[in-house]
Design a protein that fits this description.
Elements: H1 4-11, H2 15-23, E1 31-32, E2 38-39, H3 42-56, H4 61-72, H5 79-111, H6 122-128
Antiparallel strand pairs: 1-2
Length: about 140
C-alpha cells in the first residue's frame, strides 16, 4: 500500500492532481489508514502511471476514461482504442498545422523593419489590427 505522497513520488503526478483524478473517478484509493491517510494499492499505481502517460501524450481525460473502460473489459476488440488514438493524432496534426501557420505569421511580423520606436512599431500595429496579417488565423 502507498500513501498519496509515495504514489506521487513513484509516478511524478502532483498530489493535488491525484486528488482531482480521485474526485472525478479516474483513479480510486483502496481506503484509509488508521490515521485516516489515503492508501493506494498496486492497481492504483498502475492506473495512475497509465493516466500520466496518456496525459503526457496529450490525451484528454474523456478519452482516457474511455480507454480505462476498454481496459476493464475482458477480451474486447481494441478497435475503439485505435479509434481514440487515431482521433487524437488527427487533432494533434490539426493543432500542429495551426501552430505552423501562427509561426509563419509571427515570424513575418517580428522581421518587419521599422523606426525602432513604439509609435511606428509594426509588431504593435499588427497585433492591434488583424487586417495587417497576411495569413488568416
Amino acid at each position: 500500500m502507498f500513501s498519496i505522497g509515495q504514489l506521487s513520488s513513484k509516478t511524478g503526478v502532483k498530489i493535488p492532481t491525484i486528488r482531482y483524478y480521485e474526485e472525478i473517478g479516474i483513479i480510486t484509493n483502496a481506503g484509509r489508514s488508521a490515521g485516516n491517510q489515503r492508501r493506494y494499492d498496486d492497481a492504483s499505481l498502475r492506473r495512475l502511471a497509465f493516466v500520466k502517460h496518456a496525459r503526457d501524450l496529450g490525451l484528454p481525460l474523456d478519452a482516457i476514461r474511455e480507454l480505462i473502460a476498454l481496459d476493464h473489459g475482458a477480451d474486447q476488440p481494441c478497435e475503439d482504442a485505435h479509434r481514440i488514438a487515431a482521433d487524437h493524432l488527427q487533432h494533434l496534426r490539426s493543432r500542429i498545422a495551426r501552430l505552423q501557420t501562427l509561426e509563419r505569421e509571427l515570424t513575418r511580423i517580428a522581421s518587419v523593419h521599422d523606426s525602432g520606436y513604439t509609435s511606428d512599431c509594426q509588431v504593435i500595429a499588427a497585433l492591434a489590427d488583424h487586417h495587417l496579417c497576411e495569413i488568416s488565423h
